[in-house]
């Protein structure tokens, strides 16, 4: 293995350092380099131009804690049992940080991780300004599934909007300052790996005035299918909207203010990211560092009457995914489907460590260099707040299959219908395709068994 690693290094296929930049609730639909002509994301766009952008990137669970646990461990939610925002990652199974430390690579984090608590060994030598689940417990209400209760904070998403400052924007500024400071004093001392976690553009949708002013609310396009009579009818979505009835508190005017605020927060985050990348350049480590940007999940942003995350629609489950560094093709857009779970082997691969046994995923370094593999399957699942039953997604080729335990599935042709306006699961001619996709999903896990396991663990948690 040492000889192989030496050859990789000689060919410029490994890096001295890894910089992982992660936002919260950033839909890939709201990034300039992904085709959004309204949002201003010059730093993300520049990162994409010097690296590779993955056009079809996904979270492995559209909610914070489960997504971040999958990212940390390289294992799906049903494997690590971090089902919801009250069952956070505690340090087992081991993370990519543990593997890097054994290789002698120092690991630090700055900002939001959303694990259990700072005292847990989650693979970092130091955690600066760590944000974990509240009191090490998190959102226990989100573990109540039968039936999901009405969420009292749903109204705040519609009312805490517009220009201003919040504790989250103040936090993100502090995170950026600390990351830049650390790079200034330690960035030249390879090897290292640093994770930087921002909260923006997560709600409250309160944007700093200078970035909010870049977007005129009356000019913000209304979300697709935002009128109640346009909402797709499905029993799982109906139950979810009863739990999160956020849309009922919006008017047409406040919808556009909320969207302008979200766009402003995206630009605010982009500026923070730009500051960190500038600090990386100043410390002289840019040429030796693999840079990764992604988000834990997206945001529905009012489409179909849905706000926040938690669904398998592209707005919620789709995330931006950018990597840049030596040996990464510059300016490339890869159509190979990928997910957060691929970041675990990517980070290991960056410093010459082989994929950990028992983990899923594939290194994005190799995928960026390889021909597009559009038929690669990507998997996601959801068992958290508002979910009356477990939901599973398989994206393969042009199709997205969504499996609801005990309910009818959904099927979308993302090539002919990228906006997911036409559910074709009920079309007779798609019966064979549906069966094929379901069998492929079942090769990954048993939806019924996983749903049972999640609800059992959650019932035990709630009863404490």
Which structural class matches the secondary elements?
alpha/beta
Give the distance, in angstroms, between the N- and C-terminal Cα atoms: 48 Å
User: What profile does the largest beta sheet have?
Assistant: 8 strands, mixed
Describe the global form. Answer: globular
Summary?
With 464 residues, the protein is α/β, with parallel strands linked by helices.
Q: Could you characterize the architecture of this molecule?
A:
With 464 residues, the protein is of the alpha/beta class. Helices cover 34% and strands 17% of the residues. The chain has helices spanning 2-10, 42-49, 64-73, 77-80, 96-102, 154-159, 167-186, 209-212, 235-243, 252-282, 314-317, 343-350, 364-369, 431-444, 447-463, and strands at residues 17-24, 51-54, 57-58, 106-112, 126-131, 161-163, 192-201, 205-207, 289-295, 321-324, 332-334, 338-339, 378-382, 391-396, 399-404, 410-413. Helix 7 (167-186) packs parallel to helix 10. The relative contact order is 0.19.
């Amino acid at each position: 293995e040492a000889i192989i690693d030496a050859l990789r290094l000689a060919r410029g296929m490994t890096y001295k350092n890894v910089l992982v930049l992660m936002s919260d609730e950033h839909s890939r639909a709201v990034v300039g380099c992904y085709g959004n002509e309204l949002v201003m994301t010059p730093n993300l766009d520049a990162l994409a131009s010097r690296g590779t952008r993955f056009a079809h990137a996904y979270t492995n669970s559209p909610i914070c804690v489960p997504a971040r646990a999958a990212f940390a461990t390289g294992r799906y939610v049903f494997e690590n049992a971090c089902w919801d925002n009250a069952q956070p990652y505690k340090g087992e199974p081991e993370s990519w940080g543990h593997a890097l430390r054994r290789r002698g690579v120092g690991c630090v984090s700055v900002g939001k991780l959303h694990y259990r608590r700072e005292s847990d060994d989650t693979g970092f030598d130091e955690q600066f300004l760590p944000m974990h689940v509240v009191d090490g417990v998190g959102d226990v209400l989100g573990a109540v599934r039968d039936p999901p209760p009405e969420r009292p904070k749903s109204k705040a998403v519609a009312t805490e909007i517009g220009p201003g400052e919040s504790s989250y924007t103040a936090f993100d500024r502090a995170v950026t300052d600390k990351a830049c400071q650390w790079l200034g004093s330690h960035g030249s001392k390879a090897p290292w790996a640093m994770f930087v976690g921002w909260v923006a553009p997560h709600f409250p949708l309160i944007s700093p005035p200078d970035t909010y002013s870049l977007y005129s609310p009356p000019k913000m396009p209304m979300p697709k299918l935002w009128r109640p009579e346009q909402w797709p009818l499905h029993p799982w979505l109906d139950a979810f909207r009863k739990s999160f009835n956020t849309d009922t508190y919006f008017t047409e005017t406040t919808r556009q203010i909320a969207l302008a605020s979200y766009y402003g927060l995206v630009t605010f985050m982009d500026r923070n990211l730009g500051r960190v990348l500038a600090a990386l350049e100043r410390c002289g480590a840019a040429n030796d560092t693999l840079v990764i940007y992604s988000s834990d999940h997206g945001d529905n942003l009012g489409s179909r009457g849905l706000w926040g995350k938690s669904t398998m629609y592209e707005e919620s489950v789709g995330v931006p995914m950018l990597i840049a560094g030596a040996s990464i093709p510059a300016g490339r857009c890869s159509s190979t489907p990928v997910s957060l779970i691929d970041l675990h082997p990517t980070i290991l691969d960056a410093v010459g460590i082989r994929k950990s046994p028992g983990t899923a995923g594939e290194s994005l370094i190799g995928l960026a260099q390889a021909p597009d593999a559009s038929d690669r399957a990507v998997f996601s699942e959801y068992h958290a707040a508002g979910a009356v039953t477990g939901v599973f997604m398989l994206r393969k080729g042009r199709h997205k299959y969504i499996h609801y335990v005990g309910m009818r599935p959904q099927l979308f042709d993302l090539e002919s219908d990228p906006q997911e306006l036409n559910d074709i699961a009920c079309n007779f001619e798609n019966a064979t395709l549906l069966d094929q996709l379901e069998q492929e999903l079942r090769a990954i896990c048993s939806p019924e068994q996983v749903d049972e396991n999640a609800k059992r663990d959650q019932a035990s948690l709630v009863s404490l």
